[in-house]
Amino acid sequence: MTNEKLAPNETMQIHEVLNLKTVCMSTSKMMEGVVFDQDLKALLERDVQQSIISIQTLQKLLEKAPLIR
Q1: What separation in angstroms does the CA of 30 have from each of 13, 22, 42, 46, 48?
Q2: What φ, ψ does residue 23 adopt, rounded to 5°?
Q3: Which InterPro entries does the entry link to (predicted)?
Q4: pLDDT digits (tens, 9 = 90+) for 7-55
Q5: DSSP alpha helix (H) spans, 1-69
């Protein structure tokens, strides 16, 4: 028996992680503009790309969240 819906607490936790990843990605993206070291800039760009993938994965998980009426 598989449950295709997330529990309310799981939904809340995914939202919290999603918010954190979004803030971190925004910070990394903004820092790219003020950083002059190319190695650090490349690291920030890689972090942004990985964050985008993580955010997309979390959004797919939220599709299993129960509807609140």
Answers
A1: 26, 12, 13, 14, 10
A2: -65, -45
A3: Ferritin-like (IPR012347)
A4: 888 999 999 999 999 999 999 999 999 999 999 999 999 999 999 999 9
A5: 8-32, 38-62
